[in-house]
């Protein structure tokens, strides 16, 4: 980062300049979420952003997990609640469409220690996208089956959704500790 400046790296004659730049950086950093104590705005901003994005994507997966449970319970109730399952499927489809955008470059384990995402996400973007697409199409399948009130087809779709979660986690998420 070219914006990163520390006084210790500069000759004493440049300290005044450094102080001025530091003040400027501090002012501009005020617009951002946070700044590091030494005023090195560049790297710390990136770190803050990465962990914020990790929080967002975890929330998105939690939401996906919730909808999956809602759909399962709705289909297991007597009589099956197809309308609720259909709505849950639509929500999963919606959230599945957000997955890729929540994994920008620079939000891997190097930048965000709290992520459970493996470097493979960024090393094999095509396969990661395919895994996200698989979830989206399984959610579509569930919605179609639920709208048709076809219990056999919803059961198959739920299996496909579960397979999509598992398939992606095996390749792209850290194993449970
Ligand atoms: C395209 C890949 C992919 C698919 C599909 C996928 N996941 Fe994940 N999931 C991940 C990754 C990667 C993480 C780790 C995210 C992180 O820690 O930054 C994760 C994390 C999670 C978490 C933990 C969230 C947290 O709070 O830490 C849950 C719960 C979860 N997934 C549930 C599901 C369920 C349920 C499905 C299927 C309905 C699913 N996921 C489908 C890749 C995927």
From TrEMBL:
Signal peptide positions on this chain: 1-31
Keywords linked to the UniProt accession: Signal
PROSITE patterns hit by this protein: CYTCII (PS51009), PROKAR_LIPOPROTEIN (PS51257)
Top-level taxonomic group: Bacteria
SUPFAM superfamilies listed in its UniProt record: Cytochromes
Keyword Membrane (UniProt): no
Pfam families linked to this entry: Cytochrom_C_2 (PF01322)
Protein name (record): C-type cytochrome
Species assigned in the record: Novosphingobium clariflavum
